[in-house]
Amino acid sequence: MRTGERYILAHDLGTSGNKATLYDEAGNLRCSAVCGYETRYPRDRFVEQDPEDWWRAVCKSTRDLMEKAGIGPEAVLGVSFSGMMMGCLPVDGAGKALRPMILWADTRADRQEREMIARAGMARGYRITGHRLSASYSAAKLLWVRDNEPEVYEKTGKMLNAKDYIVFRLTGEFATDYSDASGTNLLDIEKKVWSDEMLRVLDIPARLLPPLHRSSDVIGGVTEEAARATGLLAGTPVVLGGGDGSCACVGAGVVRPGRAYNVLGSSSWISLAAEKPLFDEEMRTFTWVHLDEKLYTPCGTMQAAGYSYSWFRDALGGEEKRLAAEQGVSAYDLLNRLAEGSAPGARGVLYLPYLLGERSPRWDHDARGAFLGLGVGTTKGDLVRAVLEGVGYNLKIIRDILRRSAPMDSLTVIGGGAKSRTWLQILADIWEQELTLPRYREEATSMGAAICAGVGLRLYPDYSVAESLNPGEETVRPNPQNAPAYERAFARFDEAYEALRPVFARMAEDRA
User: Fold this and answer.
1) pLDDT, tens digit, 9 for 90 and up, residues 362-402
2) CB distance 104 to 244 below 8 Å
3) How many C-beta neighbours within 10 Å does residue 115 have?
4) Residue 411, helix vs strand vs coil
5) Whole-number mean pLDDT of the chain?
6) Do 240 and 219 touch, CB atoms closer than 8 A?
7) What does the angle CA 119 – CA 125 – CA 130 come to, to the nearest 5 degrees?
8) With contact defined as beta carbons under 8 Å apart, do 507 and 366 qualify?
């Protein structure tokens, strides 16, 4: 680090931990530090985290990062955030968390979902909010708290998402941005205000929702108390930032219509930049507000992409984990080699990637993961490849829906899964589309938050700088010879889900 240089500090509050990253004023990534935290699964379909773990992670990663970079707090121009979306954290009037955060992957609120649909109407709710009315979103989770934990609900002063809670801890101010608000089922997606109609029909008091802001707004300065905890200077500007989906969009350089991207992480989504919300007739996709509040990001998200691969590694890849530890490599590298030894179509094996139920394109909380087509000759390599392909088939449905409704001139891939050339080639072959890999792949989400801070602090004129700050550097081209095998397997994938859908529903009754 050079003397006198100044930096933007971006925090990315993800499902597995917080990543703190320093970017210089020219947008170059200079240093990063990660601090993990635990996710708890108290019951089937319950997914929770302790917000105090986030705060400890933010404090530790901030201090670790400045020490690692060899800089003092005076070098930090401002702080901004990307955070996991669609959560529900009730806090009291003083900002104290009243219970663990109910995460995006939590689908316990199925009864509340049905009540929302009965009261508001699915089509009407979708038209107002840009999203299906679903247990996946914040409103249903808040109603679950009201119905099951009335003592918590009565004390609730505000419902916050992850980044909003940390912004409060830093500044003492309640706020949320349009992108995170668009994941609540309570925002009027076109007017960009809390929907009076949705609040009225769901009987949710408007006072429970934080004030709405642009993602680039400076919410306040770091308080004296937060400065002591984080090592930052009191008064350091805190720029609100956005939901991880919208931050990833900007970090991937998708800042004008016609550009699209795929995040290949724990969950996975395909999204694009558009001037208007996209309302799918079958309501399979949905729309967020972009960090640039003049734009939207139509999107389809599946629940268990990287989750499927990590589940396989932990449940069936014990030998690869042992060998990886001995060889000093990643277990995924060894599993990828097994997948490469199989063939396109995984020699007849299919995997349905529904470990957490599914959002797009199925919208089926009862769906579960499944392998089909196993035989005595099936190898572990076939199973690994089937997992990677199953995620690709599910994403293909999403991509095809979006591409029919809006231009998709290019497709940029970011996220941890983008490290796997094996998986990228499988996706390119299934989608029959060239994929672009940018300079920053795993850091694209934090880069979006940093660009947001740069816009808010007037270092950058607008979000268009993202295209030059994270340019495409590599491409993965589809192999046309694999197209026939994947076309056949994709058709079987869709048939398999439809055939098993009633079985999944009956199995859900057994879990109730």
Assistant:
1) 999 899 999 999 999 999 999 999 999 999 999 999 999 99
2) no
3) 16
4) strand
5) 96
6) yes
7) 165
8) yes
Tokens of 443: 């850091």
Tokens coding 495: 């048939």
Burial bucket for residue 42 (CB in 10 Å: 0-12, 13-18, 19+): exposed
Element (H, E) at 90: strand 89-91
Could you write out the DSSP letters of every residue in 381-392? HHHHHHHHHHHH
User: What is the spatial distance between Cα 134 and Cα 364, in angstroms, rounded to a whole number?
Assistant: 10
170-174: Cβ within 8 A, 24+ apart: 170/79, 170/220, 170/222, 170/223, 170/226, 170/230, 170/238, 171/219, 171/220, 171/221, 171/222, 171/223, 171/226, 171/238, 172/95, 172/220, 172/223, 173/219, 173/220, 174/95, 174/210, 174/211
Parallel, antiparallel or unpaired: strands 296-302 and 286-289: antiparallel
Are 418 and 379 spatial neighbours (Cβ–Cβ below 8 Å)?
no
Give the span between the Cα atoms of 258 and 376, in whole angstroms: 47
Question: For the segment 244-267, what is each residue's pLDDT rounded down to a tens digit?
Answer: 999 999 999 999 998 999 999 888
Strands 212-213 and 176-177: parallel
pLDDT at position 410 over 90: no
Taken as a whole, the chain contains a residue count of 512
C-alpha to C-alpha distances, 344 to 333, 348, 398, 411, nearest whole angstrom: 18, 9, 21, 22
Residue of 378, 241, 357 whose CA lies nearest to 304 = 357
For the record, the structure tokens of 351 come out as: 């995997």
Sequence-separated (6 or more) residues with CB below 8 Å from residue 255: 249, 273, 290, 292, 295, 463, 464, 466, 467
Q: Would you give the distance in Å from CA 70 to the centre of its chain?
A: 31
- Written as one letter, the residue type at 388 is L
- Give the residue from 94, 82, 18 showing the smallest Cα distance to 49: 18
Buried b (16+ CB within 10 A) or exposed e, 245-255: bbbbbbbbbbb
C-beta separation of 22 from 232 below 8 A: no
Which residues contact residue 369 at a Cβ distance below 8 angstroms, ignoring those fewer than 6 apart?
304, 308, 311, 351, 352, 353, 354, 355
Q: Give dist(CA 12, CA 352) in Å, integer.
A: 29
Beta strand extents in 216-354 (DSSP E only): 218-221, 237-239, 242-243, 259-264, 268-272, 286-289, 296-302, 350-352
List alpha helices for 161-209, DSSP H: 162-171, 178-181, 196-202
User: What six digits make up the tokens of 147?
Assistant: 């119905």
Query: How many Cα atoms sit within 13 Å of 301 on the Cβ side?
Result: 23
